[in-house]
Amino acid sequence: MSFGAPMMLPGLQRDEHWYQRGVYYEVLVGSYADSNGDGIGDFQGLISKLDYLQWLGVDVIWVPPFFESPLRDGGYDVADYRKVLPDYGTIDDFRELVTQAHARNMRVLIDIVINHTSDQHEWFQASREDPEGPYGDFYVWSDTDEKYQDYRIIFVDTEESNWTFDPIRRQFFFHRFFSHQPDLNFESPAVQREVFDIVRFWLDLGVDGCRLDAIPYLFESEEGTGESEPETHEFIQRLRAMVDDEYPGRVLLAEANQWPHEVVDYFGTDEEPECHMAFDFPTMPRIFYALRSQLKGELEEILRDQLDIPKGAAWGVFLRNHDELTLEMVDEDYRQTMYGWYAYDPRMRINVGIRRRLAPLLENSLDEIKLANAILLSLKGSPILYYGDEIGMGDNIWLDDRDASRTPMQWSPDRNAGFSTADPGKLKLPVVQSLVYNYGHVNVEAQMAQSGSLLHWMRGMLQLRRQHPVFGMGSLEVVETNHESVLAYVRDYRGQPSKRHSGDRRERILCAFSFADTPTSATISLPLDAGSRLFDLHGGQEFPRIGEDGEVTLTFGAKQFYWLYIADPEFVDTATSAISIIRPDDAS
Ligand code: NOJ
Ligand code: CA
Predict the structure, then answer these.
(1) pTM of the model as a whole
(2) CB 26 less than 6 A from any atom of ligand 1
Protein backbone atom coordinates (compact mmCIF):
# COMPACT_ATOMS: atom_id res chain seq x y z
CA MET A 1 0.00 0.00 0.00
CA SER A 2 1.49 3.34 -0.91
CA PHE A 3 0.73 6.68 0.66
CA GLY A 4 1.60 8.92 -2.26
CA ALA A 5 4.90 10.79 -2.43
CA PRO A 6 7.67 9.45 -0.18
CA MET A 7 7.03 10.58 3.35
CA MET A 8 9.11 13.38 4.72
CA LEU A 9 10.17 12.59 8.23
CA PRO A 10 9.94 15.96 9.90
CA GLY A 11 11.15 14.90 13.34
CA LEU A 12 9.51 15.91 16.56
CA GLN A 13 8.63 19.57 16.49
CA ARG A 14 8.65 21.60 19.64
CA ASP A 15 5.18 22.72 20.56
CA GLU A 16 4.15 23.28 24.13
CA HIS A 17 0.50 22.98 23.07
CA TRP A 18 0.84 19.66 21.23
CA TYR A 19 -1.62 17.90 23.50
CA GLN A 20 -4.28 20.57 22.91
CA ARG A 21 -3.85 20.84 19.15
CA GLY A 22 -3.37 17.22 18.22
CA VAL A 23 -5.67 14.52 16.90
CA TYR A 24 -5.27 11.30 18.87
CA TYR A 25 -5.66 7.74 17.63
CA GLU A 26 -6.13 4.84 20.02
CA VAL A 27 -4.48 1.70 18.69
CA LEU A 28 -4.44 -1.75 20.30
CA VAL A 29 -1.05 -3.30 19.53
CA GLY A 30 -2.38 -6.86 19.49
CA SER A 31 -5.09 -6.03 16.97
CA TYR A 32 -3.34 -3.68 14.56
CA ALA A 33 -0.70 -5.45 12.50
CA ASP A 34 1.17 -8.74 12.97
CA SER A 35 4.73 -8.57 11.63
CA ASN A 36 5.85 -12.16 12.27
CA GLY A 37 2.80 -14.18 11.34
CA ASP A 38 2.08 -15.58 14.80
CA GLY A 39 -1.46 -14.23 14.72
CA ILE A 40 -0.86 -11.46 17.26
CA GLY A 41 -0.30 -7.82 16.41
CA ASP A 42 3.02 -6.44 17.60
CA PHE A 43 5.21 -3.34 17.88
CA GLN A 44 6.97 -4.00 14.56
CA GLY A 45 3.57 -4.31 12.91
CA LEU A 46 2.49 -0.99 14.38
CA ILE A 47 5.78 0.63 13.33
CA SER A 48 5.10 -0.54 9.77
CA LYS A 49 1.79 1.34 9.86
CA LEU A 50 3.14 4.66 11.12
CA ASP A 51 3.34 5.97 7.56
CA TYR A 52 -0.36 5.27 7.23
CA LEU A 53 -1.10 7.14 10.46
CA GLN A 54 1.05 10.05 9.34
CA TRP A 55 -0.78 10.08 6.01
CA LEU A 56 -4.09 10.10 7.84
CA GLY A 57 -3.03 13.12 9.89
CA VAL A 58 -2.72 11.60 13.35
CA ASP A 59 -0.63 13.59 15.84
CA VAL A 60 -0.67 11.36 18.89
CA ILE A 61 -0.98 7.59 19.16
CA TRP A 62 -2.42 6.28 22.38
CA VAL A 63 -1.25 2.72 23.01
CA PRO A 64 -3.26 0.94 25.74
CA PRO A 65 -1.40 -1.47 28.05
CA PHE A 66 1.21 -3.65 26.38
CA PHE A 67 2.86 -4.86 29.57
CA GLU A 68 3.34 -8.38 30.84
CA SER A 69 -0.15 -9.55 31.73
CA PRO A 70 -2.41 -12.59 31.79
CA LEU A 71 -4.69 -10.52 29.54
CA ARG A 72 -7.88 -11.15 31.46
CA ASP A 73 -8.78 -7.46 31.08
CA GLY A 74 -7.19 -6.52 27.77
CA GLY A 75 -3.86 -5.86 29.52
CA TYR A 76 -5.35 -3.56 32.19
CA ASP A 77 -4.34 -6.40 34.50
CA VAL A 78 -0.62 -5.71 34.69
CA ALA A 79 1.73 -8.42 35.96
CA ASP A 80 4.96 -6.47 35.49
CA TYR A 81 5.04 -2.73 34.83
CA ARG A 82 8.52 -2.73 33.35
CA LYS A 83 8.22 -5.65 30.95
CA VAL A 84 6.41 -5.70 27.66
CA LEU A 85 4.28 -8.65 26.64
CA PRO A 86 6.66 -10.94 24.68
CA ASP A 87 3.92 -11.50 22.06
CA TYR A 88 4.18 -7.80 21.21
CA GLY A 89 7.96 -7.74 20.92
CA THR A 90 10.77 -6.46 23.09
CA ILE A 91 11.35 -3.27 24.98
CA ASP A 92 13.74 -2.28 22.19
CA ASP A 93 10.89 -2.70 19.71
CA PHE A 94 8.83 -0.35 21.86
CA ARG A 95 11.74 2.11 21.97
CA GLU A 96 11.87 1.94 18.20
CA LEU A 97 8.16 2.65 18.04
CA VAL A 98 8.67 5.84 20.04
CA THR A 99 11.66 6.87 17.92
CA GLN A 100 9.84 6.18 14.67
CA ALA A 101 6.71 7.99 15.83
CA HIS A 102 8.78 11.00 16.88
CA ALA A 103 10.54 10.96 13.52
CA ARG A 104 7.11 11.52 11.99
CA ASN A 105 6.26 14.27 14.47
CA MET A 106 3.82 12.01 16.26
CA ARG A 107 3.68 11.68 20.01
CA VAL A 108 3.10 8.50 22.01
CA LEU A 109 0.76 8.26 24.96
CA ILE A 110 0.66 5.11 27.06
CA ASP A 111 -1.55 3.78 29.84
CA ILE A 112 -0.34 3.70 33.41
CA VAL A 113 -2.67 1.42 35.34
CA ILE A 114 -1.93 2.26 38.96
CA ASN A 115 -5.18 1.63 40.80
CA HIS A 116 -4.76 -2.12 40.63
CA THR A 117 -2.48 -4.87 39.38
CA SER A 118 -3.14 -8.37 38.12
CA ASP A 119 -3.30 -11.02 40.85
CA GLN A 120 -0.34 -12.50 38.94
CA HIS A 121 1.87 -9.54 39.85
CA GLU A 122 4.71 -10.63 42.13
CA TRP A 123 3.71 -7.94 44.63
CA PHE A 124 0.35 -9.63 45.08
CA GLN A 125 1.88 -13.08 45.31
CA ALA A 126 4.26 -11.81 47.99
CA SER A 127 1.49 -9.92 49.77
CA ARG A 128 -0.81 -12.89 50.06
CA GLU A 129 1.96 -15.21 51.20
CA ASP A 130 3.75 -12.99 53.66
CA PRO A 131 1.52 -10.46 55.43
CA GLU A 132 4.46 -9.26 57.54
CA GLY A 133 6.87 -9.01 54.59
CA PRO A 134 7.80 -5.93 52.54
CA TYR A 135 4.73 -6.31 50.29
CA GLY A 136 2.33 -7.26 53.08
CA ASP A 137 0.51 -3.91 52.95
CA PHE A 138 0.75 -3.34 49.17
CA TYR A 139 -2.93 -4.25 48.79
CA VAL A 140 -6.12 -3.46 50.71
CA TRP A 141 -6.70 -6.42 53.02
CA SER A 142 -9.45 -6.95 55.54
CA ASP A 143 -10.69 -9.74 57.81
CA THR A 144 -14.23 -9.14 56.63
CA ASP A 145 -15.93 -8.08 53.43
CA GLU A 146 -18.01 -5.55 55.27
CA LYS A 147 -15.97 -2.39 54.88
CA TYR A 148 -16.94 0.19 52.25
CA GLN A 149 -20.42 -1.22 51.80
CA ASP A 150 -21.62 1.96 50.06
CA TYR A 151 -19.03 1.78 47.32
CA ARG A 152 -20.53 1.05 43.96
CA ILE A 153 -19.57 -1.98 41.89
CA ILE A 154 -18.33 -1.05 38.45
CA PHE A 155 -18.34 -4.34 36.55
CA VAL A 156 -21.90 -5.17 37.58
CA ASP A 157 -22.23 -7.97 35.02
CA THR A 158 -19.40 -10.03 36.51
CA GLU A 159 -18.79 -8.92 40.11
CA GLU A 160 -21.07 -9.14 43.12
CA SER A 161 -18.78 -7.49 45.63
CA ASN A 162 -15.67 -5.31 45.73
CA TRP A 163 -14.13 -7.87 48.13
CA THR A 164 -12.81 -11.34 47.35
CA PHE A 165 -11.54 -13.91 49.84
CA ASP A 166 -7.98 -15.05 49.32
CA PRO A 167 -7.56 -18.62 50.53
CA ILE A 168 -3.80 -18.21 50.98
CA ARG A 169 -3.74 -15.13 53.22
CA ARG A 170 -7.17 -16.03 54.58
CA GLN A 171 -8.30 -12.43 54.29
CA PHE A 172 -10.43 -10.47 51.86
CA PHE A 173 -8.80 -8.13 49.34
CA PHE A 174 -10.47 -5.09 47.86
CA HIS A 175 -10.93 -4.64 44.09
CA ARG A 176 -12.78 -1.91 42.22
CA PHE A 177 -12.83 -3.95 39.01
CA PHE A 178 -12.46 -7.68 38.32
CA SER A 179 -11.73 -10.00 41.27
CA HIS A 180 -8.40 -10.84 39.60
CA GLN A 181 -7.40 -7.16 39.84
CA PRO A 182 -6.58 -6.35 43.48
CA ASP A 183 -6.41 -2.63 44.28
CA LEU A 184 -3.05 -1.29 45.37
CA ASN A 185 -2.96 0.28 48.82
CA PHE A 186 -2.05 3.90 48.27
CA GLU A 187 -1.77 4.48 52.01
CA SER A 188 1.56 2.67 51.72
CA PRO A 189 4.46 5.07 51.01
CA ALA A 190 6.27 2.19 49.32
CA VAL A 191 3.40 1.79 46.82
CA GLN A 192 3.50 5.50 46.09
CA ARG A 193 7.26 5.37 45.51
CA GLU A 194 6.87 2.40 43.16
CA VAL A 195 4.23 4.26 41.15
CA PHE A 196 6.46 7.31 40.77
CA ASP A 197 9.29 5.09 39.58
CA ILE A 198 7.09 3.30 37.06
CA VAL A 199 6.02 6.63 35.58
CA ARG A 200 9.67 7.72 35.48
CA PHE A 201 10.67 4.46 33.79
CA TRP A 202 8.37 5.06 30.83
CA LEU A 203 9.00 8.79 30.60
CA ASP A 204 12.74 8.03 30.56
CA LEU A 205 12.02 5.79 27.62
CA GLY A 206 10.65 8.78 25.76
CA VAL A 207 6.88 8.50 25.92
CA ASP A 208 5.12 11.85 25.75
CA GLY A 209 2.30 11.24 28.14
CA CYS A 210 0.44 8.85 30.38
CA ARG A 211 -3.23 8.09 30.55
CA LEU A 212 -3.94 7.51 34.22
CA ASP A 213 -6.36 4.62 34.20
CA ALA A 214 -9.21 4.52 36.74
CA ILE A 215 -7.71 7.48 38.56
CA PRO A 216 -10.61 8.30 40.95
CA TYR A 217 -10.20 5.07 42.88
CA LEU A 218 -6.68 5.30 44.29
CA PHE A 219 -7.56 5.91 47.95
CA GLU A 220 -10.39 4.48 50.05
CA SER A 221 -11.92 5.94 53.21
CA GLU A 222 -14.64 5.03 55.68
CA GLU A 223 -16.41 8.37 55.26
CA GLY A 224 -16.16 8.69 51.50
CA THR A 225 -17.19 6.63 48.51
CA GLY A 226 -13.68 5.61 47.48
CA GLU A 227 -14.00 7.94 44.50
CA SER A 228 -11.99 11.17 44.32
CA GLU A 229 -10.94 11.08 47.95
CA PRO A 230 -8.90 14.18 48.93
CA GLU A 231 -5.78 12.00 49.29
CA THR A 232 -6.19 10.88 45.68
CA HIS A 233 -6.02 14.49 44.52
CA GLU A 234 -3.02 15.19 46.74
CA PHE A 235 -1.22 12.22 45.27
CA ILE A 236 -1.89 13.35 41.69
CA GLN A 237 -0.67 16.85 42.55
CA ARG A 238 2.62 15.35 43.69
CA LEU A 239 2.84 13.18 40.60
CA ARG A 240 2.26 16.22 38.39
CA ALA A 241 4.88 18.23 40.24
CA MET A 242 7.37 15.43 39.62
CA VAL A 243 6.49 15.31 35.90
CA ASP A 244 6.75 19.09 35.51
CA ASP A 245 10.01 19.10 37.34
CA GLU A 246 11.74 16.12 35.79
CA TYR A 247 9.95 15.77 32.42
CA PRO A 248 8.62 19.18 31.35
CA GLY A 249 6.36 18.99 28.31
CA ARG A 250 5.03 15.49 29.06
CA VAL A 251 1.38 15.18 29.97
CA LEU A 252 -1.02 13.29 32.22
CA LEU A 253 -4.50 12.37 31.04
CA ALA A 254 -7.15 11.47 33.63
CA GLU A 255 -9.60 8.68 33.04
CA ALA A 256 -12.44 9.58 35.40
CA ASN A 257 -15.89 8.55 34.27
CA GLN A 258 -17.71 11.23 36.24
CA TRP A 259 -19.73 14.40 35.90
CA PRO A 260 -17.87 17.48 34.66
CA HIS A 261 -18.02 19.26 38.04
CA GLU A 262 -16.18 16.28 39.56
CA VAL A 263 -13.79 15.68 36.68
CA VAL A 264 -12.59 19.30 36.61
CA ASP A 265 -10.97 18.63 39.97
CA TYR A 266 -8.54 16.36 38.13
CA PHE A 267 -7.17 19.40 36.32
CA GLY A 268 -6.34 20.89 39.71
CA THR A 269 -5.75 24.63 39.90
CA ASP A 270 -3.20 27.00 38.38
CA GLU A 271 -1.29 26.83 41.67
CA GLU A 272 -1.68 23.10 42.24
CA PRO A 273 -2.19 21.47 38.87
CA GLU A 274 -3.07 17.79 38.53
CA CYS A 275 -3.65 16.36 35.03
CA HIS A 276 -3.16 18.29 31.79
CA MET A 277 -6.08 16.47 30.25
CA ALA A 278 -9.20 14.58 31.26
CA PHE A 279 -11.66 12.60 29.20
CA ASP A 280 -15.01 14.24 28.64
CA PHE A 281 -17.45 11.39 29.35
CA PRO A 282 -20.85 13.15 29.41
CA THR A 283 -20.74 14.75 25.95
CA MET A 284 -20.29 11.47 24.07
CA PRO A 285 -23.63 9.72 24.83
CA ARG A 286 -25.46 12.96 24.14
CA ILE A 287 -24.11 13.03 20.60
CA PHE A 288 -25.57 9.57 20.06
CA TYR A 289 -28.84 10.61 21.68
CA ALA A 290 -29.12 13.66 19.43
CA LEU A 291 -28.50 11.56 16.33
CA ARG A 292 -31.46 9.26 16.99
CA SER A 293 -33.87 11.65 18.70
CA GLN A 294 -33.17 14.38 16.11
CA LEU A 295 -33.09 16.74 19.09
CA LYS A 296 -30.10 18.83 20.05
CA GLY A 297 -31.51 19.47 23.58
CA GLU A 298 -29.22 17.81 26.11
CA LEU A 299 -26.14 17.99 23.93
CA GLU A 300 -26.61 21.73 23.60
CA GLU A 301 -27.14 22.01 27.33
CA ILE A 302 -23.94 20.19 28.24
CA LEU A 303 -21.97 22.30 25.77
CA ARG A 304 -23.43 25.49 27.27
CA ASP A 305 -22.57 24.36 30.80
CA GLN A 306 -18.88 24.60 30.28
CA LEU A 307 -16.84 24.82 33.42
CA ASP A 308 -13.75 26.93 33.82
CA ILE A 309 -10.64 24.86 33.53
CA PRO A 310 -7.10 26.02 34.30
CA LYS A 311 -5.09 27.63 31.55
CA GLY A 312 -3.38 24.92 29.54
CA ALA A 313 -5.83 22.19 30.55
CA ALA A 314 -7.69 20.28 27.85
CA TRP A 315 -10.57 17.85 27.55
CA GLY A 316 -10.14 14.65 25.59
CA VAL A 317 -13.26 14.05 23.49
CA PHE A 318 -14.20 10.79 21.82
CA LEU A 319 -17.01 8.85 20.21
CA ARG A 320 -15.77 5.32 20.82
CA ASN A 321 -12.85 3.56 22.45
CA HIS A 322 -11.81 0.06 23.53
CA ASP A 323 -14.47 0.01 26.27
CA GLU A 324 -18.22 -0.11 26.04
CA LEU A 325 -20.05 3.08 25.07
CA THR A 326 -20.68 3.97 28.67
CA LEU A 327 -24.11 5.22 29.68
CA GLU A 328 -23.15 6.08 33.24
CA MET A 329 -23.41 9.79 32.55
CA VAL A 330 -27.09 9.81 31.54
CA ASP A 331 -30.17 9.28 33.66
CA GLU A 332 -32.18 6.06 33.69
CA ASP A 333 -34.90 7.12 31.20
CA TYR A 334 -32.35 8.35 28.75
CA ARG A 335 -30.29 5.17 29.23
CA GLN A 336 -33.24 2.88 28.53
CA THR A 337 -34.10 4.87 25.43
CA MET A 338 -30.53 4.55 24.20
CA TYR A 339 -30.50 0.81 24.88
CA GLY A 340 -33.67 0.58 22.81
CA TRP A 341 -32.12 2.39 19.88
CA TYR A 342 -28.54 1.21 19.99
CA ALA A 343 -28.56 -2.13 21.85
CA TYR A 344 -31.82 -3.75 20.84
CA ASP A 345 -30.12 -7.16 21.10
CA PRO A 346 -29.17 -7.89 24.75
CA ARG A 347 -25.83 -9.21 23.54
CA MET A 348 -24.93 -5.65 22.63
CA ARG A 349 -25.09 -4.55 26.26
CA ILE A 350 -22.47 -4.83 28.93
CA ASN A 351 -22.34 -3.36 32.42
CA VAL A 352 -23.81 0.12 32.03
CA GLY A 353 -23.13 0.47 28.35
CA ILE A 354 -23.07 -0.80 24.79
CA ARG A 355 -20.26 -2.87 23.29
CA ARG A 356 -20.45 -1.81 19.66
CA ARG A 357 -18.38 0.16 17.21
CA LEU A 358 -19.23 3.49 15.66
CA ALA A 359 -20.37 2.35 12.20
CA PRO A 360 -22.75 -0.40 13.40
CA LEU A 361 -24.13 1.93 16.08
CA LEU A 362 -25.04 4.35 13.31
CA GLU A 363 -26.44 1.62 11.05
CA ASN A 364 -23.53 2.29 8.70
CA SER A 365 -25.05 5.61 7.64
CA LEU A 366 -22.22 7.59 6.09
CA ASP A 367 -24.06 10.84 6.75
CA GLU A 368 -24.36 10.06 10.44
CA ILE A 369 -20.77 8.87 10.77
CA LYS A 370 -19.61 12.08 9.14
CA LEU A 371 -21.89 14.23 11.27
CA ALA A 372 -20.69 12.57 14.49
CA ASN A 373 -17.05 13.01 13.47
CA ALA A 374 -17.61 16.62 12.43
CA ILE A 375 -18.89 17.30 15.93
CA LEU A 376 -16.02 15.40 17.51
CA LEU A 377 -13.40 17.25 15.48
CA SER A 378 -14.85 20.68 16.23
CA LEU A 379 -15.60 20.32 19.95
CA LYS A 380 -13.52 22.12 22.50
CA GLY A 381 -11.03 19.44 23.39
CA SER A 382 -8.60 17.08 21.76
CA PRO A 383 -10.37 14.49 19.59
CA ILE A 384 -9.47 10.85 20.10
CA LEU A 385 -10.25 8.42 17.29
CA TYR A 386 -10.51 4.67 17.74
CA TYR A 387 -8.56 2.51 15.28
CA GLY A 388 -10.68 1.20 12.43
CA ASP A 389 -13.43 3.77 12.85
CA GLU A 390 -11.78 5.81 10.10
CA ILE A 391 -12.87 3.11 7.66
CA GLY A 392 -16.18 2.36 9.36
CA MET A 393 -15.14 -1.05 10.69
CA GLY A 394 -17.82 -3.30 12.14
CA ASP A 395 -17.87 -5.33 15.35
CA ASN A 396 -18.63 -8.91 16.41
CA ILE A 397 -21.14 -9.14 19.24
CA TRP A 398 -20.64 -12.92 19.43
CA LEU A 399 -17.25 -12.34 21.03
CA ASP A 400 -17.06 -11.94 24.80
CA ASP A 401 -16.92 -8.77 26.80
CA ARG A 402 -15.50 -5.74 25.02
CA ASP A 403 -13.65 -7.88 22.49
CA ALA A 404 -16.68 -7.24 20.31
CA SER A 405 -15.00 -4.06 19.12
CA ARG A 406 -11.34 -5.06 19.44
CA THR A 407 -11.07 -7.25 16.33
CA PRO A 408 -8.12 -7.05 13.89
CA MET A 409 -7.67 -3.93 11.81
CA GLN A 410 -8.92 -4.44 8.26
CA TRP A 411 -6.12 -3.50 5.89
CA SER A 412 -7.01 -5.35 2.72
CA PRO A 413 -9.26 -8.07 1.28
CA ASP A 414 -6.43 -10.58 1.68
CA ARG A 415 -6.22 -13.40 4.22
CA ASN A 416 -6.99 -12.17 7.76
CA ALA A 417 -7.76 -8.75 6.28
CA GLY A 418 -4.04 -8.22 5.73
CA PHE A 419 -3.59 -8.10 9.51
CA SER A 420 -1.61 -11.34 9.72
CA THR A 421 -0.33 -14.14 7.52
CA ALA A 422 -1.13 -16.74 10.21
CA ASP A 423 -3.56 -19.59 9.80
CA PRO A 424 -6.92 -17.82 10.33
CA GLY A 425 -7.73 -20.25 13.15
CA LYS A 426 -4.73 -19.00 15.09
CA LEU A 427 -5.88 -15.40 15.47
CA LYS A 428 -6.72 -14.36 19.03
CA LEU A 429 -9.80 -12.59 17.73
CA PRO A 430 -11.31 -13.35 14.34
CA VAL A 431 -11.57 -10.70 11.66
CA VAL A 432 -15.06 -9.33 11.02
CA GLN A 433 -16.84 -11.31 8.31
CA SER A 434 -20.38 -10.06 8.68
CA LEU A 435 -22.41 -9.24 5.61
CA VAL A 436 -22.18 -5.47 5.90
CA TYR A 437 -18.72 -5.02 7.46
CA ASN A 438 -16.87 -7.94 5.88
CA TYR A 439 -13.15 -7.19 5.51
CA GLY A 440 -13.49 -8.16 1.85
CA HIS A 441 -14.93 -4.73 1.18
CA VAL A 442 -14.44 -2.71 4.39
CA ASN A 443 -10.67 -2.24 4.38
CA VAL A 444 -8.01 0.44 4.07
CA GLU A 445 -6.83 -0.64 0.63
CA ALA A 446 -10.29 -0.43 -0.91
CA GLN A 447 -10.95 2.94 0.68
CA MET A 448 -7.59 4.33 -0.39
CA ALA A 449 -8.64 3.50 -3.94
CA GLN A 450 -11.89 5.49 -3.71
CA SER A 451 -11.54 9.23 -3.38
CA GLY A 452 -15.05 9.48 -1.97
CA SER A 453 -14.46 6.98 0.83
CA LEU A 454 -14.87 7.61 4.53
CA LEU A 455 -11.11 7.22 4.92
CA HIS A 456 -10.33 10.03 2.47
CA TRP A 457 -13.04 12.17 4.03
CA MET A 458 -11.55 11.67 7.50
CA ARG A 459 -8.12 12.56 6.21
CA GLY A 460 -9.48 15.71 4.61
CA MET A 461 -11.17 16.70 7.88
CA LEU A 462 -7.96 16.16 9.83
CA GLN A 463 -6.03 18.27 7.33
CA LEU A 464 -8.57 21.04 7.54
CA ARG A 465 -8.56 20.95 11.31
CA ARG A 466 -4.79 21.20 11.35
CA GLN A 467 -4.93 24.40 9.29
CA HIS A 468 -7.10 26.11 11.89
CA PRO A 469 -5.65 26.34 15.37
CA VAL A 470 -9.01 27.63 16.54
CA PHE A 471 -10.15 24.01 16.81
CA GLY A 472 -7.43 23.05 19.25
CA MET A 473 -6.96 26.34 21.03
CA GLY A 474 -10.13 28.39 20.75
CA SER A 475 -13.18 28.94 22.90
CA LEU A 476 -16.60 27.46 22.13
CA GLU A 477 -19.80 29.41 22.43
CA VAL A 478 -23.17 27.83 21.74
CA VAL A 479 -25.40 30.14 19.67
CA GLU A 480 -29.18 30.19 19.35
CA THR A 481 -30.97 28.54 16.49
CA ASN A 482 -34.70 28.44 15.94
CA HIS A 483 -34.74 24.71 15.26
CA GLU A 484 -34.75 21.89 17.80
CA SER A 485 -32.67 19.70 15.47
CA VAL A 486 -30.04 22.27 14.62
CA LEU A 487 -27.08 22.79 16.93
CA ALA A 488 -24.66 25.65 16.33
CA TYR A 489 -21.59 26.98 18.08
CA VAL A 490 -18.82 29.41 17.33
CA ARG A 491 -15.19 28.53 17.87
CA ASP A 492 -13.09 31.63 18.46
CA TYR A 493 -9.37 32.13 18.76
CA ARG A 494 -7.14 35.15 18.83
CA GLY A 495 -3.57 34.28 17.91
CA GLN A 496 -0.61 36.15 19.31
CA PRO A 497 1.06 38.67 16.99
CA SER A 498 3.90 37.01 15.13
CA LYS A 499 6.61 37.90 12.64
CA ARG A 500 4.41 36.91 9.72
CA HIS A 501 1.21 38.56 10.88
CA SER A 502 0.41 41.74 12.64
CA GLY A 503 -2.83 43.22 13.86
CA ASP A 504 -5.97 41.33 14.71
CA ARG A 505 -5.47 37.67 13.85
CA ARG A 506 -8.69 36.48 15.24
CA GLU A 507 -10.36 33.44 13.76
CA ARG A 508 -14.03 32.68 14.22
CA ILE A 509 -15.67 29.57 12.83
CA LEU A 510 -19.34 28.75 12.89
CA CYS A 511 -20.04 25.04 13.28
CA ALA A 512 -23.64 24.06 12.59
CA PHE A 513 -25.15 20.57 12.59
CA SER A 514 -28.58 19.27 11.68
CA PHE A 515 -29.72 16.09 13.41
CA ALA A 516 -32.91 16.00 11.38
CA ASP A 517 -33.60 13.01 9.13
CA THR A 518 -35.02 15.27 6.44
CA PRO A 519 -33.88 18.54 4.82
CA THR A 520 -34.27 21.49 7.13
CA SER A 521 -33.75 25.19 7.24
CA ALA A 522 -32.82 27.03 10.42
CA THR A 523 -32.09 30.57 11.47
CA ILE A 524 -28.97 31.05 13.55
CA SER A 525 -28.41 34.09 15.76
CA LEU A 526 -24.95 35.58 15.60
CA PRO A 527 -25.39 39.06 17.07
CA LEU A 528 -21.64 39.57 17.49
CA ASP A 529 -21.13 38.96 13.78
CA ALA A 530 -23.89 41.09 12.26
CA GLY A 531 -23.06 41.88 8.63
CA SER A 532 -20.17 39.39 8.45
CA ARG A 533 -19.61 37.08 5.53
CA LEU A 534 -19.52 33.29 5.71
CA PHE A 535 -17.26 31.01 3.71
CA ASP A 536 -17.28 27.24 3.69
CA LEU A 537 -14.08 26.02 5.26
CA HIS A 538 -13.78 23.12 2.86
CA GLY A 539 -14.15 24.75 -0.51
CA GLY A 540 -14.16 28.47 0.21
CA GLN A 541 -17.66 28.92 -1.25
CA GLU A 542 -19.45 32.00 0.00
CA PHE A 543 -22.68 31.46 1.95
CA PRO A 544 -25.48 33.93 2.66
CA ARG A 545 -24.20 36.95 4.57
CA ILE A 546 -25.20 37.36 8.21
CA GLY A 547 -27.89 40.04 8.29
CA GLU A 548 -27.50 43.37 10.04
CA ASP A 549 -29.91 41.89 12.61
CA GLY A 550 -27.29 39.24 13.37
CA GLU A 551 -29.29 36.40 11.86
CA VAL A 552 -28.59 34.02 9.04
CA THR A 553 -30.78 31.27 7.64
CA LEU A 554 -29.10 28.12 6.39
CA THR A 555 -30.53 25.10 4.61
CA PHE A 556 -29.33 21.65 5.61
CA GLY A 557 -29.69 18.29 3.93
CA ALA A 558 -30.55 15.37 6.23
CA LYS A 559 -27.88 14.91 8.95
CA GLN A 560 -25.69 17.58 7.43
CA PHE A 561 -23.21 20.02 8.87
CA TYR A 562 -21.25 23.14 7.97
CA TRP A 563 -17.99 24.56 9.20
CA LEU A 564 -18.10 28.21 8.09
CA TYR A 565 -15.41 30.83 8.36
CA ILE A 566 -16.80 34.10 9.69
CA ALA A 567 -15.15 36.99 7.86
CA ASP A 568 -15.38 40.75 8.35
CA PRO A 569 -17.72 42.50 5.90
CA GLU A 570 -14.63 43.99 4.21
CA PHE A 571 -13.06 40.58 3.69
CA VAL A 572 -12.75 40.22 -0.07
CA ASP A 573 -10.46 37.34 -0.89
CA THR A 574 -12.56 34.23 -1.08
CA ALA A 575 -9.70 31.93 -2.03
CA THR A 576 -9.57 28.96 0.32
CA SER A 577 -5.99 29.66 1.26
CA ALA A 578 -6.94 33.11 2.49
CA ILE A 579 -9.32 31.50 4.91
CA SER A 580 -6.54 29.97 6.94
CA ILE A 581 -5.37 33.28 8.25
CA ILE A 582 -3.74 31.82 11.31
CA ARG A 583 -1.33 29.06 10.53
CA PRO A 584 -0.54 26.56 13.26
CA ASP A 585 3.08 27.65 13.35
CA ASP A 586 2.05 31.23 14.02
CA ALA A 587 -0.26 30.39 16.85
CA SER A 588 1.09 30.22 20.33
C1 NOJ B 1 -10.45 1.31 32.45
C2 NOJ B 1 -10.09 0.68 31.15
O3 NOJ B 1 -10.40 1.57 30.11
C4 NOJ B 1 -10.87 -0.62 31.04
O5 NOJ B 1 -10.65 -1.21 29.79
C6 NOJ B 1 -10.49 -1.52 32.17
O7 NOJ B 1 -11.27 -2.69 32.12
C8 NOJ B 1 -10.70 -0.83 33.50
N9 NOJ B 1 -10.06 0.45 33.53
C10 NOJ B 1 -10.15 -1.67 34.64
O11 NOJ B 1 -8.77 -1.79 34.52
CA1 CA C 1 3.10 -11.08 15.93
Answers:
(1) 0.96
(2) no
